[in-house]
């Protein structure tokens, strides 16, 4: 099958299916299949096309899922104003910093009460992940844990998932094109729910929506995009198209993150950062690694509200030191991509970048203590990102990495 990828101007309609012919000694059952299957509109003013998206997807009554910050910024109002002529859609804004099982159930009750048939997720990764959870349970019997990846839930998620239109308002998460939703269950475990059916049917990427982001959020979400590109590139899975996208996204992010943080109205920097975030999300097909294996359970802690992108920024250098012995060839490519010296220390490079952005130096500055090390290390081993780290890691390895990150 001939692969095709259209990139025209600032718009992407990215539909790539690449079937790689396996060696004759391999079973057809393990033939690698690479797919990027969603429709993306990327340009300033892209939200103007949401009414057309709803019509094309057959969504007559959407539930808008956002958070209070996005609502107060007036972005939800911009979207509801585009839907004039129809009944005002219900809006759910009680999205926690890290989406929870309880929030999914609360939003699902609103969805069912109003007879909704689709969702518009507006915001960062939390509203988008929450919307995916609602879309899942709107068409599948609970409990939610039944569909978690580590509980064998991937094949239980069917195409009956309600359609989601994702409208990112930060440049970092990549969830608008991702197949995963990270949700913290009642017992505190932050689990991944993964399926191609969870990829939003539309990703509406409008850099205009990021112009008002404060410096710290620009920096933290931007480092999230950086981490996605680095970790997916280093993943041992063989996926050359994803690796090319990851390197392009990493270069865009590194070249523009400080510009966007210093001048939030820099339209080109905002455009480049949103593209970097999108590309980071497109590479999720390769899997992530130890950074996310640690940041996921840390984000599920109930007594701390820890921002995902900030966690990734702090943990990334530690894992780069751990992984180097198993990925030196790829480290060399990253150095070349970023224009660094052949002997440059990547861990030190990203540590200094994070420092210039004003992000925390270690997890202790975020309130994390060494008392949680054993529990988080055990949770990291069970996280779905653990399997695709560049270097195999043990519980003891995670304990050492986490202790170093705490400082």
UniProtKB/TrEMBL annotation:
<dbReference type="InterPro" id="IPR056798">
    <property type="entry name" value="ADH_Fe_C"/>
</dbReference>
<feature type="domain" description="Fe-containing alcohol dehydrogenase-like C-terminal">
    <location>
        <begin position="218"/>
        <end position="405"/>
    </location>
</feature>
<dbReference type="InterPro" id="IPR018211">
    <property type="entry name" value="ADH_Fe_CS"/>
</dbReference>
<keyword id="KW-0520">NAD</keyword>
<dbReference type="InterPro" id="IPR039697">
    <property type="entry name" value="Alcohol_dehydrogenase_Fe"/>
</dbReference>
<dbReference type="GO" id="GO:0046872">
    <property type="term" value="F:metal ion binding"/>
</dbReference>
<dbReference type="Pfam" id="PF25137">
    <property type="entry name" value="ADH_Fe_C"/>
</dbReference>
<feature type="domain" description="Alcohol dehydrogenase iron-type/glycerol dehydrogenase GldA">
    <location>
        <begin position="38"/>
        <end position="207"/>
    </location>
</feature>
<dbReference type="InterPro" id="IPR001670">
    <property type="entry name" value="ADH_Fe/GldA"/>
</dbReference>
<dbReference type="Pfam" id="PF00465">
    <property type="entry name" value="Fe-ADH"/>
</dbReference>
<dbReference type="GO" id="GO:0004022">
    <property type="term" value="F:alcohol dehydrogenase (NAD+) activity"/>
</dbReference>
<keyword id="KW-0560">Oxidoreductase</keyword>
<protein>
    <submittedName>
        <fullName>4-hydroxybutyrate dehydrogenase</fullName>
    </submittedName>
</protein>
<comment type="similarity">
    <text>Belongs to the iron-containing alcohol dehydrogenase family.</text>
</comment>
């Amino acid at each position: 099958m001939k692969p095709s990828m259209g990139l025209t101007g600032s718009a992407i309609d990215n539909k790539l299916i690449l079937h790689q012919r396996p060696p004759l000694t391999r079973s057809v059952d393990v033939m690698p299949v690479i797919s990027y299957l969603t429709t993306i509109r990327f340009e300033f003013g892209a939200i103007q096309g949401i009414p057309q998206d709803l019509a094309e997807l057959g969504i007559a009554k959407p539930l808008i899922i956002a958070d209070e910050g996005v609502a107060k910024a007036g972005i939800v109002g911009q979207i509801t104003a585009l839907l004039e002529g129809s009944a005002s859609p219900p809006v759910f804004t009680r999205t926690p910093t890290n989406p929870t099982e309880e929030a999914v159930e609360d939003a699902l009750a609103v969805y069912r009460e109003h007879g909704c048939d689709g969702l518009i997720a507006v915001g960062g990764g939390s509203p988008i992940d929450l919307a995916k959870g609602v879309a899942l349970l709107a068409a599948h019997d609970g409990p939610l844990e039944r569909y978690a990846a580590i509980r064998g839930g991937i094949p239980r998620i069917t195409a009956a998932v309600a359609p989601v239109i994702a409208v990112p308002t930060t440049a970092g998460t990549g969830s608008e094109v991702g197949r995963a939703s990270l949700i913290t269950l009642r017992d505190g475990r932050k689990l991944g729910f993964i399926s191609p059916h969870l990829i939003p049917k539309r990703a509406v990427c409008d850099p205009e929506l990021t112009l008002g982001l404060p410096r710290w959020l620009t920096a933290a979400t931007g480092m999230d995009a950086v981490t996605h590109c680095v970790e997916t590139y280093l993943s041992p899975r063989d996926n050359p198209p994803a690796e090319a996208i990851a390197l392009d996204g990493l270069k865009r992010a590194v070249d523009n993150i400080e510009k966007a943080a210093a001048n939030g109205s820099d339209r080109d920097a905002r455009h480049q950062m949103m593209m970097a975030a999108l590309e980071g999300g497109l590479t999720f097909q390769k899997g992530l690694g130890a950074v996310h294996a640690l940041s996921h359970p840390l984000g599920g802690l109930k007594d701390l509200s820890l921002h995902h992108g900030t966690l990734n920024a702090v943990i990334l250098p530690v894992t780069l030191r751990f992984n180097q012995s198993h990925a030196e060839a790829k480290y060399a490519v990253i150095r070349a991509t970023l224009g660094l010296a052949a002997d440059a220390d990547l861990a030190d490079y990203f540590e200094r970048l994070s420092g210039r952005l004003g992000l925390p130096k270690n997890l202790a500055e975020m309130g994390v203590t060494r008392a949680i090390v054993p529990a988080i290390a055990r949770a990291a081993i069970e996280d779905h990102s653990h399997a695709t780290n560049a270097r195999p890691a043990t519980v003891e390895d995670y304990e050492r990495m986490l202790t170093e990150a705490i400082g």
